[in-house]
Specification:
The protein has six helices and eleven strands. The chain has 233 residues and is an alpha/beta fold. The chain has a single domain, classed as Rossmann fold (3-Layer(aba) Sandwich). Strand 8 and strand 9 form a beta hairpin. The chain is globular and about 50 Å long.
Amino acid sequence: MALLRKADETVDTFLNGKLRIIQSRQGYRFSVDALLLAEFVLIKDEGLVIDLGAGSGIISLFLATKRKVGFIVGIEFQKELASQAQRNVALNELERKIAIIQGDLRHLPLARGFADVVVCNPPYRQQRSGRINPDESKAIARHEIAANLDAILTAAKALLKRGGRLTLIYPANRLTEIFTKMRTEGLEPKRLQIIFPDSASYAKLALIEGRLQGKSGLKILPPIFGQGRYSVL
């Protein structure tokens, strides 16, 4: 493990010790949003999954551990996060299930039309929205700097098979925007689950699934309050 973890990184355990995750001490660290998104994903047995903006690899690792996936390809723009994701795959001995590629989703290093599922925990703060974090890894993960919603939807459409699923998490107050743009790309909204901080607050986030060239009909799942059954320490 010492060879995999750098001095400015931590190793944390999740899923009752089933997963060990290398993360930066001061830089970007994943939030509970990633775990809620991973739990929301539907995958047929042996399905092929693309994790866009894989970060340190938490969603890929979760799916490879808890689901009967065929294979997962994680694409991460940032060099250091891609390195962490690659080392996390090795740390958890999941090389036969996951491959991590450093690349730009706007210039996909993959074939088109072959994925069963695309999952994405995107940056969803617009560039002119709020203070941009001086830490580059946090800024790119949170603000639409390296990729925006349009680029993500275009990439997902290119990667998915007909009937394939895009699953992502997005601010609840931007639902009309994302639904409109999904339909423009031929991604029909099929499942929706709203996340509330608590029962007395407005909705904060939404888990969304769309199907490429899917039929109309949206299933709204019971809401999630707080962090659901997960916590990130």
